[in-house]
Amino acid sequence: MVDYDLLVPYGWTEAVASRYLPLIGDLVPARVVRMDRSECDVVTPRGPARAACPRDITGLCTGDWVGLDADGTVRQLLPRESAITRSSVSGRSVAQVLAANVDTVLICTAADGDVDLGRIERMLALAWESGAQPVVVLTKADAADDLRLDAVRTVAPGATVVAVSAAAGAGLEDLTAVLTGTVALIGPSGAGKSTLANALLGAEVFATNAVRAVDGKGRHTTVHRELRPLPGGGTLIDTPGLRGVGLFDAAEGIGRTFSDIESLAADCRFADCGHETEPGCAVRAALAEGTITERRLTSYRKLARENEWMAARSDKRLAAERERAWRTIAKQQRRQYRERGHR
């Protein structure tokens, strides 16, 4: 009989067991803690192990649950409950999964630097779309001249916003109180993600680095996504800094991020109101009253247009792939017919 106790600190629960055990047959369940191209570090009922990743198992990511065979090879990627997904940095219309089976997303931004509300909205859309609960964390609060908590709260409806100082230990209890399940940290380099991760883990697990003095920008200290158990229960995934956060099929996430604007839009006179010069526009009325800002409306439009463009591009890519597949099939059929004719 397999003993799953060693998996419990990495997120194994009765609910996870009931969901996955019927799917894997004779395979052994394991969770991916770090990816390295054709191999990955996993935790199994027997403890940590190194697993091979064959080419036919694609898209594996830190946080995934998988099935291993007796040789320690990944044979099955189990269905994800959630996934933080952005458009590929290559510019192609494909998705890149940053972390899988995440329950809480910590959106980190340095309070002592440029608190970019537009970037926070973008990452909120990413987090909401994943199916996880976002929490906006203003790090390095002890070094900030002006904590913009109220400004951040106005752009994060439905999300908790906290200020912390990992160095001073301030605000960590408030943050820990809202963490559940698997927690992933996202944000730009220099946002203090690894320092915060170490504070939550209670040990210097991840390497840290100071921001560049010349421009105040961060350096890429974390180069891998890595999962670790939290001392109070749950798990944590630290991720490399995000230079760009392209949205991929994130209509629902945008709707949750801008729920204030979408609620107003429901009261517009026309269902297809563009919120420009149309009469009876509730969004423009709120803008005139100061209920929402021009910056927020512009950000909403920008993300919505970007998401629509990516969706259209993805549809074209899929159509092109289907056409190439049919052409390949047609060529094979013609070759088979020719070969038959020579027999």
Automatic annotation (TrEMBL):
What domain of life?
A: Bacteria
Enzyme class name = hydrolase
Domain spans labelled EngC GTPase: 100-243
Major localization class = cytoplasm
Q: Could you say which residues bind Zn(2+) here? A: 268, 273, 275, 281
Q: Which Pfam families match?
A: RsgA_GTPase
The segment(s) forming the CP-type G domain are 91-245
Q: Which cofactor does it need?
A: Zn(2+)
Q: Which InterPro entries match?
A: G_CP_dom, P-loop_NTPase, Ribosome_biogen_GTPase_RsgA, RsgA_GTPase_dom
EC number in record: 3.6.1.-
| Binding-site residues, GTP | 139-142, 187-195
Keywords, A to Z, come to:
Cytoplasm, GTP-binding, Hydrolase, Metal-binding, Nucleotide-binding, Ribosome biogenesis, RNA-binding, rRNA-binding, Zinc
Alphabetized PROSITE patterns for the sequence: ENGC_GTPASE, G_CP
The role this protein plays is: One of several proteins that assist in the late maturation steps of the functional core of the 30S ribosomal subunit. Helps release RbfA from mature subunits. May play a role in the assembly of ribosomal proteins into the subunit. Circularly permuted GTPase that catalyzes slow GTP hydrolysis, GTPase activity is stimulated by the 30S ribosomal subunit.
In which family does this protein belong, per the annotation? Belongs to the TRAFAC class YlqF/YawG GTPase family. RsgA subfamily.
Q: What's the subunit arrangement here? A: Monomer. Associates with 30S ribosomal subunit, binds 16S rRNA.
- Please state what the protein is called: Small ribosomal subunit biogenesis GTPase RsgA
Q: What's the source species' lineage?
A: Bacteria, Bacillati, Actinomycetota, Actinomycetes, Mycobacteriales
